[in-house]
Design brief:
The protein has helices spanning 2-22, 27-55, 61-90, 125-194, 198-216, 226-240, 269-279, 323-333; strands at 95-96, 119-120, 224-225, 248-253, 262-263, 286-295, 298-306, 338-344, 348-356. The protein is an alpha+beta fold.
Length: 358
């Protein structure tokens, strides 16, 4: 609306500038503002009514027919208004008497000789037709183009809202996938730990409560601080250690000094969960190496784990968080600003995720 008001203020203020600078007669204002009023009506009738109602419908011929009727009707309105304005400015009935000799410019000799005849109406009527046709068509295309651009912008906004809702759904799905089996296993481990070490079991319950608080409240906002995400992963890993055997070699390296910044929650824990699910063996030696680096505006996350025999084809099963779901979420959150590399061998699975937070 502000753009429309600004455009009209400039458009309607131009005649005042021309009159002051080049001393154009005031009669010019009458014709200018009458044509401006008619042009404005044509523009906004098409912009506000015809284009939204007919052009975006299935039967576009209704739109073209309506535009044709609009242009023809306002041609007669323009012609009549110009005649009336021309009479008002001249202060006469607009008959130009020609008392010149026959053959002089401007004289219209009557049939058979005698007195000269009058020449009715404003001059350059043919030019008025061409000027009106060009101006009205230009206004029709301009108003239609603006309406199409606005509609496309609205569609883009709707798509963004849809993507945002999809992101929220992905996050909710992710949280629901983490919560049930993880809390079930953790509570069982804490229950077994109570009879062995009461102090450690109390610490485990405290960490579990922090995880629940993070999942239920902080991650609901759709953004969190990187420090909170690292704390969440540390607590998660500490709880997963409760069911680890001595045969598992676990290495965790998170940065201690870094620039804390906003980030989407629960980005890295799916990889950690899968590494614990598929990288731990109670019979053979196994390992899990988890690391993160924060370099300027980039986060580099690595997770490498041993892959046990018989689990090579179960990494994306329905009981865990499928890597395909993680890919989709990363594509929605960081389009064109992330790299996810997955390297798999017979006995090792490696994930390298780089996120650029520009």
């Amino acid at each position: 609306m502000l753009l429309h008001l600004l455009a009209w203020a400039i458009f309607l203020g131009l005649p005042l500038y021309f009159i002051k600078r080049w001393q154009i007669g005031k009669d010019f204002i009458w014709f200018y503002y009458i044509s401006s009023l008619i042009n404005g009506i044509i523009f906004y009738v098409n912009y506000l009514f015809l284009a939204p109602k007919f052009f975006f419908g299935k039967k576009k011929y209704r739109y073209y027919l309506s535009v044709l009727i609009l242009i023809v009707c306002f041609y007669f309105v323009s012609d009549i208004s110009n005649k009336l304005a021309f009479k008002y400015v001249s202060g006469t009935d607009q008959t130009v008497q020609t008392d010149r000799h026959p053959g002089e410019p401007g004289r219209i000799p009557p049939p058979g000789g005698g007195a000269s005849l009058s020449r009715p109406g404003p001059p350059f009527r043919g030019m008025h037709r061409y000027n009106y046709a060009f101006t009205s068509l230009f206004l029709i295309f301009l108003s239609l183009g603006l309406r199409v651009l606005e509609r496309n912008s609205q569609i883009e906004e709707l798509q963004k809202e849809t993507e945002k809702e999809k992101l929220n759904s992905e996050l909710a799905f992710l949280k629901n996938q983490i919560s049930p089996h993880f809390f079930f296993n953790t509570l069982n481990n804490i229950y077994s730990l109570i009879s062995i070490n009461a102090e450690d079991s109390q610490k485990a319950v405290l960490k579990l409560s922090k995880l629940m608080r993070y999942l239920l409240y902080e991650s609901e906002q759709g953004k969190t601080m990187l420090s909170n995400e690292i704390d969440f992963m540390n607590n998660y890993i500490d709880l997963m250690k409760l069911r680890m055997s001595e045969k598992v070699n676990l290495s965790v390296t998170f940065p201690e000094k870094y620039e804390d910044r906003n980030i989407a929650p629960l980005l890295f824990v799916p990889f950690i969960e899968n590494s614990f699910k598929h990288g731990i063996s109670y019979r053979e030696k196994s390992f899990i190496n988890i690391s993160m680096e924060v370099i300027k505006r980039s986060i580099i996350f690595k997770c490498v784990n041993s892959l046990q025999k018989g689990k090579e084809n179960t990494y994306n099963d329905h009981n865990g968080i499928g890597l395909e779901n993680v890919r989709k979420r990363l594509n929605l959150l960081f389009p064109g600003s992330h790299d996810l590399k997955i390297n798999k061998s017979d006995n090792e699975f490696e994930i390298i995720l780089e996120i650029r937070l520009d």
